[in-house]
From TrEMBL, chain A:
Its main location: membrane. Residues 51-282 form the Penicillin-binding protein dimerisation domain. This is Penicillin-binding protein. It comes from Candidatus Scalindua brodae. It is found in: Membrane. GO terms for cellular component: plasma membrane. The chain crosses the membrane at residues 6-26. Residues 325-631 form the Penicillin-binding protein transpeptidase domain.
From TrEMBL, chain B:
Keywords: Cell membrane, Cell shape, Cell wall biogenesis/degradation, Glycosyltransferase, Membrane, Peptidoglycan synthesis, Transferase, Transmembrane, Transmembrane helix. The keyword Transmembrane applies. It is found in: Membrane. It comes from Candidatus Scalindua brodae. The keyword Cell wall biogenesis/degradation applies. One of its GO terms (molecular function) is lipid-linked peptidoglycan transporter activity. It is a multi-pass membrane protein. Its main location: membrane. The chain crosses the membrane at residues 12-30, 42-63, 69-89, 126-146, 152-170, 177-198, 267-289, 298-319, 331-352. GO terms for cellular component: cell division site; plasma membrane. This is Cell wall polymerase. GO terms for biological process: cell division; cell wall organization; peptidoglycan biosynthetic process; regulation of cell shape.
Length: 636, 367
C-alpha cells in the first residue's frame, strides 16, 4: 500500500512539474517575441530639451531680460575619467612630453596617450592653459564619483548612474569664433561636442534690477516644494491648499533655472515654457543613444511686458544718484508704474560673482525700497489729516489756529518746525508752510479713530498688490492717547508706510478722489505674440470727498510748490503740485526726506514719490531737486 | 548517539545535484545583484555545508526523541517574534539574538516535520479520525502564528508537509478529503478576517490581472513574466539580461532569481534546471521508499514535500501560475535562513539514508 502511495505522491509532483514546464514553454518559446518586445521598450530613454525662458520687455518694447544661446563645450564622461586617472597617477607631466616616445617607453601607449591628448587640443583651441582643463575634468570626475558612491552605498550594489553616460560641460560661454574653429576640428575630436545652452542676459545691467529679479538653480526648499510626483499624490488627498503660480509647471529638469526674485519669480511658471522631450533608443552596454525615435519640441515661455518705461526709469535712477532711497513715477489715470527706482542696486549680469559681497553690504542692496522699505510718512501725511478734518466737518477753510512755535498738551510740548511759530493760519496756509501746530490742534478735535479711518480709506498700512513679491505691509497703529494722535497727525510715531502706498495716496488725490491701483504688469503674450493677459485698470471706485474740499487740498498742494516749503526746489514752471515731508529718525541729523506730488497740477499725467532715507537735509531741499530733475527730463 | 557512519551509504547523486544548484546560485546571485552578494552567498553556503556535515554525525533518532521539546522551543520563539521581532518589509519575521537574526518560521518547517513524523509513528491506531486531531492541532498552531507575522508563504508550506506525512503514514483517504473540504469551507473566513489587504490584492492580481493597474500589485508579476519571456529559447547570456540588469525586476536575487535565470539562460537550460530538481526530488522519494525505518520514511517524505512545495510554489509564482508570496527557491535564492534550513533538511534526508536499518528494538535500545 505504501508503495502505491509513494507512486501517487511522486505522480502529483511530476504532474505539477509538467504544468510548470508547459507554462514555461508557452512563455519563453511561443510568447517570447512578445515579451522581449516589451522588455526592449524599456530601453527607450527620454531626454529633456531645454526651452527658452520668456523675454521681459518694458512698455515700449525694450528688452529687460532675455534668454540668449551660449555655446558650451562638452566632453563624454569616459574621456574625462580616463584623463583623470592618468592625471592622478601623475603620468602626464606635460601632455606633449608624453607624446614624445623617448619619455614614455615604459608606458602603455594605448592607455596613456590617446586618452589624454584631447586635453591639449582643446586647450589649444580655447586658448587656455591645459592645466585648467585638467582641473575641470578632475572636478567633474570627483563630483560624479561622489554621487556614484552614495548611490551604490544606498543600493548595496554596483550601479551605473546617468551622469556616467552623458557629456559634461568643461567650458561655457565659448565665443563664436572659437566655436567655428572647433567645428572645423570636430572630426579629430570624438566625444567632444559643442552644445548650445540658454543663458539669461539682462541688457540693461543694473537698471530696475529689483523689479526684474533674477534666476537661479532650484534650491533644496524649492526642490521639496517641487517634487511633483509627491504633489500629485498629495493633491488627491487634500486639494484645499491653493497651488501657487510658482509651481504649476508640469515638468522641470533638475538644473533648470527658476526665478528667484521680482518678476522672474512671480511669473516664473509663465516665463519658463515647457521643455521638450526626446525619445532615444539606448544600448544596454554603453547607455549611449543609438537612434532618435521621437522628438517633441520645446515651447518657449511667455513674454512679459511691464509698464516700466526704460527711459524714465533711467532718468529716475540717475536723478536719485547714489543716495539711499526710492523714486516712484506713476500714471495716476490708470495706475501704471512708469519708473520705480531704488538705490543701492545690483548688477543682474554679474550677480553670481557679486552675491557674497552684496549680501554682506550694510546698505542692504537686495531690499527693493519702493515696496519694502517701511518709513514714517512725515508731513506728507498731513494731506490725510487735512482731508479727514475737512470731510468730517471738524474744520473748514476759514478755521484759523494760532501757532506759537509749540503746543503743550498735558505735560508734553510738541514743537513746530519754526521755533518762532507761524502765527494765525488757516488750512491752506498750514499745508503750505507745513505747520505742525495747526495739525496738532486739528488732531485734537478730530480724534485718532477718524484719522485711522481716513488713512485706511487711502490704503495706508496695507499692501498695494503692485505685482511684485515680498511687498511689505507697513503699519497704521491704533491711537490710544491724545499725544499719540498728535504724533500720528503729522505722520510721525509708530506709523510705517512704504513709498508705493504713498504713491497710491497721492495718485488718488491727483485723480480728485478716484481710487487707483498701482500695477507693474502691462500684458503677457505667448511666444507667437498672441496676447494672453491684458492688465488694464479702469478707475471705478471713488473715495467720497466733496469737490470743495478737494479743491482746497489741491490748491494748497500747489501753493506748497509756489510759495511754501518746496519753493526753493524751483518746481513752479513744471506745473507741479506737491507736499514735502521730513521725518525725524532716532538719530540726530538724520532724516528721511520726502517729496510727493503730481504734474501738471490741473490735469495730472504723472504723480511721483521721492524719498531719500537717512539724509541730513529736509524734504524740500533734498527730495525736491530730484523730482525737478526727473520732471524736467520727462518733459511735461 | 554520535555514531560516525562511513561514507558507504552517502548519496553522491543528490550531493552532485545540490552542488550544481549551489554553483548556479553563486553565478546568478552575482548577475542579479552584485559581486559582494555573491560572495556573501558563498559564506552562507559554507555555513550551510558545515551544518549539514555536523548534523550528519548525529543520529536522526536521537533528535527525533527530543522533537517535542524542539517543537515547543520553536513555538515559543514564534510567540517572541510576534512580540519583539524586527520588522523588515512590513513583516515581523526576525528575532534578534545579539548580532544574529533568527527566522523561527524557517526552523518551524523542520521541527514540524520531525514532530509530525514522531506523532504518526507513536500513534498505534491511525485508523480512527480522532487520531488525526492531535497532528492537525500541531500543524495549525504554528501556521496561525506564522500567518500573523505575516508570512503567508512559509505558513502555506506547512500544508503539503502535513498532508504528505499523513498520506504516507497510511491515514485513510476519506479522512484527508474531510479535512480538505473543511479547509475549503473556511476560505471565506480567512478572506475577510485573516488576510492582509496587500495579500488580498496579490490574490486578486493573480486571478484577474487586468483589473489591477500595471504598476501596482500586478507590477511584480508582469515584470517577472516579461523577464522570463524575453529570455526566449537560448537566453540573453549571463549578465546580459535587460530586465534584471536594468533593475526592472525587484528582488531579482532572492525570490525572483528563477526569472533572472530564465532570462539569461533561456528555455533549454532552464528545462535542464527543472529536470535536475525532478531528479533531486525523485532521489529523495527513492530514499523514503527504500528505508526500512517508518520514522525515517516519514521524515524524508516530509522534507521532500517541503522541498517540492517550495520549488513548485516559487517557480509557479515567477511564471504567473501562483499568487506572489515570499518564497525562496531552495539552494539557489540568496539568503542565509533559507539556505541553512534547506541544508538541515537535506542533512536529515542523508541521515536517514546512511543509517538505514530496521526498527527491531525499542527506541531506547540504541541510546
Amino acid at each position: 500500500m505504501q508503495k502505491n502511495r509513494f507512486k501517487i505522491l511522486f505522480g502529483t509532483i511530476s504532474v505539477l512539474f509538467f504544468v510548470i514546464f508547459c507554462k514555461l514553454f508557452y512563455i519563453q518559446m511561443i510568447q517570447g517575441g512578445k515579451y522581449s518586445g516589451i522588455s526592449n521598450k524599456k530601453r527607450i530613454r527620454t531626454v529633456d530639451i531645454d526651452t527658452l525662458r520668456g523675454t521681459i520687455y518694458d512698455r515700449n518694447g525694450s528688452v529687460l531680460a532675455v534668454d540668449k544661446h551660449s555655446f558650451e563645450l562638452t566632453v563624454m564622461y569616459e574621456k574625462l575619467f580616463d584623463t583623470h586617472s592618468c592625471f592622478k597617477q601623475n603620468i602626464l607631466p606635460r601632455v606633449s612630453e608624453v607624446k614624445n616616445p623617448a619619455l614614455n617607453r615604459g608606458l602603455c601607449k594605448e592607455c596613456h596617450i590617446d586618452k589624454a591628448t584631447w586635453v591639449e587640443k582643446v586647450a589649444g583651441l580655447l586658448d587656455i592653459p591645459y592645466i585648467d582643463v585638467f582641473n575641470k575634468a578632475t572636478e567633474i570626475v570627483k563630483n560624479v564619483e561622489n554621487i556614484k558612491h552614495a548611490v551604490e552605498k544606498r543600493n548595496e550594489r554596483k550601479i551605473r548612474i546617468k551622469e556616467e553616460t552623458v557629456p559634461h560641460s568643461i567650458a561655457s560661454n565659448v565665443p563664436w569664433e572659437k566655436v567655428a574653429k572647433f567645428e572645423v576640428e570636430m572630426l579629430n575630436l570624438p566625444g567632444i561636442q559643442i552644445e548650445t545652452n540658454p543663458v539669461r542676459l539682462y541688457p540693461q545691467g543694473d537698471m530696475s534690477s529689483h523689479i526684474i529679479g533674477y534666476v537661479g538653480k532650484m534650491g533644496e526648499k524649492e526642490m521639496q516644494n517641487y517634487n511633483f510626483k509627491k504633489k500629485w499624490f498629495d493633491s488627491l488627498k487634500n486639494s484645499d491648499e491653493s497651488e501657487s503660480e510658482f509651481f504649476t509647471q508640469k515638468a522641470v529638469s533638475m538644473d533648470a533655472l527658476i526665478g528667484k526674485n521680482g518678476i522672474e519669480k512671480i511669473y516664473n511658471s509663465r516665463l519658463m515654457g515647457i521643455p521638450g522631450e526626446r525619445f532615444e533608443e539606448v544600448t544596454l552596454d554603453t547607455m549611449r543613444a543609438d537612434k532618435l525615435i521621437l522628438e517633441r519640441p520645446s515651447i518657449p515661455g511667455n513674454n512679459i511686458f511691464l509698464t516700466i518705461d526704460t527711459r524714465i526709469q533711467g532718468i529716475a535712477e540717475k536723478a536719485l544718484g547714489k543716495r539711499k532711497g526710492s523714486v516712484i513715477v506713476m500714471d495716476p489715470r490708470n495706475g501704471e508704474i512708469i519708473a520705480m527706482a531704488s538705490f543701492p542696486r545690483y548688477n543682474l549680469n554679474t550677480l553670481n560673482r557679486d552675491f557674497a559681497a552684496l549680501s554682506k553690504n550694510r546698505l542692504k542692496p537686495f531690499l527693493n525700497r519702493p515696496i519694502q522699505s517701511v518709513l514714517p510718512p512725515g508731513s506728507t501725511f498731513k494731506i490725510i489729516t487735512a482731508i479727514a478734518a475737512l470731510e468730517e466737518n471738524k474744520i473748514d477753510e476759514n478755521t484759523h489756529f494760532p501757532c506759537y512755535g509749540s503746543l503743550k498738551v498735558g505735560n508734553i510740548r510738541f514743537r513746530c518746525n519754526i521755533g518762532n511759530g507761524h502765527g494765525l493760519l488757516n488750512i491752506e496756509e498750514a499745508m503750505q508752510y507745513s505747520c505742525n501746530v495747526f495739525f496738532f490742534q486739528t488732531a485734537i478735535i478730530l480724534g485718532g479713530t477718524l484719522l485711522k479711518k481716513w488713512a485706511e480709506n487711502f490704503g495706508l498700512g496695507d499692501t498695494t498688490d503692485v505685482g511684485l513679491i515680498y511687498e511689505k505691509k507697513g503699519n497704521f497703529p491704533e491711537s490710544r492717547s491724545i499725544s499719540q494722535t498728535i504724533n500720528l497727525s503729522i505722520g510721525q510715531g509708530a506709523m510705517l508706510v512704504t513709498p508705493i502706498q504713498i504713491a497710491r495716496m497721492i495718485a488718488t488725490i491727483a485723480n480728485g478722489g478716484w481710487y487707483t491701483k498701482p500695477h507693474i504688469l502691462q500684458k503677457i503674450s505667448d511666444y507667437k505674440g498672441n496676447i494672453l493677459v491684458n492688465n488694464k485698470y479702469e478707475l471705478t471706485e471713488k473715495i467720497n470727498i466733496s469737490e470743495k474740499n478737494m479743491n482746497i487740498i489741491k490748491s494748497s498742494l500747489r501753493k506748497v510748490v509756489t510759495d511754501g516749503t518746496a519753493k526753493k526746489a524751483d518746481l513752479e514752471e513744471l506745473q507741479v503740485a506737491g507736499k514735502t515731508g521730513t521725518t525725524q529718525t532716532a538719530r540726530e541729523n538724520e532724516n528721511h526726506a520726502w517729496f510727493i506730488g503730481y504734474a501738471p497740477f490741473e490735469n495730472p499725467k504723472y504723480c511721483f514719490v521721492v524719498v531719500v532715507e537717512h539724509t541730513e537735509g529736509h524734504g524740500g531741499a533734498v527730495a525736491g531737486p530730484i523730482a525737478r530733475e526727473i520732471l524736467t527730463q520727462i518733459g511735461i | 548517539m554520535y555514531r560516525l557512519v562511513g561514507l558507504r551509504n552517502f548519496d553522491w547523486l543528490i550531493f552532485l545535484v545540490v552542488c550544481l544548484f549551489l554553483s548556479t546560485s553563486f553565478f546568478f546571485v552575482w548577475s542579479a545583484s552584485s559581486e559582494s552578494f555573491a560572495f556573501k552567498q558563498i559564506i552562507w553556503i559554507g555555513v550551510g555545508v558545515t551544518v549539514f556535515f555536523v548534523l550528519l554525525m548525529v543520529d536522526y533518532y536521537s533528535i527525533g526523541k527530543i522533537s517535542y521539546i524542539l517543537y515547543l522551543i520553536v513555538l515559543f520563539c514564534l510567540f517572541l517574534v510576534l512580540l519583539f521581532g524586527k520588522t523588515v518589509y512590513g513583516a515581523q519575521r526576525w528575532l534578534m539574538v545579539g548580532p544574529i537574526s533568527i527566522q523561527p518560521s524557517e526552523m518551524m518547517k523542520i521541527t514540524l516535520v520531525l514532530v509530525l513524523s514522531r506523532c504518526f509513528v507513536d500513534k498505534k491506531s491511525i485508523a480512527g479520525f480522532s487520531g488525526i486531531i492531535f497532528p492537525l492541532a500541531l500543524t495549525l498552531l504554528p501556521m496561525t502564528l506564522i500567518m500573523k507575522q505575516p508570512d503567508l508563504g512559509t505558513s502555506l508550506i506547512l500544508i503539503p508537509v502535513f498532508f504528505s506525512i499523513m498520506f504516507i503514514a497510511g491515514v485513510k483517504t476519506r479522512y484527508m478529503f474531510t479535512i480538505i473540504a473543511f479547509t475549503l469551507s473556511t476560505i471565506p473566513f480567512f478572506w475577510y478576517f485573516v488576510l492582509h489587504a496587500y495579500q488580498k490584492t496579490r490574490v486578486v492580481s493573480f486571478l484577474w490581472p487586468d483589473t489591477v493597474s500595471n504598476w501596482g500589485s500586478g507590477y511584480h508579476r508582469i515584470q517577472s513574466l516579461i523577464t522570463i519571456g524575453s529570455g526566449g529559447s537560448l537566453g540573453s547570456g549571463w549578465g546580459k539580461g535587460v530586465q534584471s540588469q536594468l533593475n526592472f525586476l525587484p528582488q531579482g536575487h532572492t525570490d525572483f532569481i528563477f526569472s533572472v535565470i530564465a532570462e539569461e539562460w533561456g528555455f533549454y537550460r532552464v528545462s535542464v534546471l527543472l529536470c535536475l530538481y525532478m531528479v533531486f526530488l525523485a532521489c529523495c522519494i527513492g530514499i523514503a521508499l527504500n528505508t526500512r525505518d517508518p520514522y525515517g520514511r516519514l521524515i524524508v517524505t516530509g522534507f521532500t514535500a517541503m522541498f517540492a512545495a517550495q520549488i513548485l510554489i516559487n517557480i509557479a509564482m515567477t511564471i504567473g501560475l501562483a499568487p506572489i508570496t515570499g518564497m525562496p527557491l531552495p539552494f539557489i535564492s540568496y539568503g542565509g535562513s533559507s539556505m541553512i534550513s534547506s541544508f538541515i533538511a537535506l542533512s536529515f534526508i542523508f541521515n536517514v539514508r546512511m543509517r538505514n536499518r530496521v526498527a527491531l528494538a525499542k527506541d531506547g535500545f540504541y541510546g
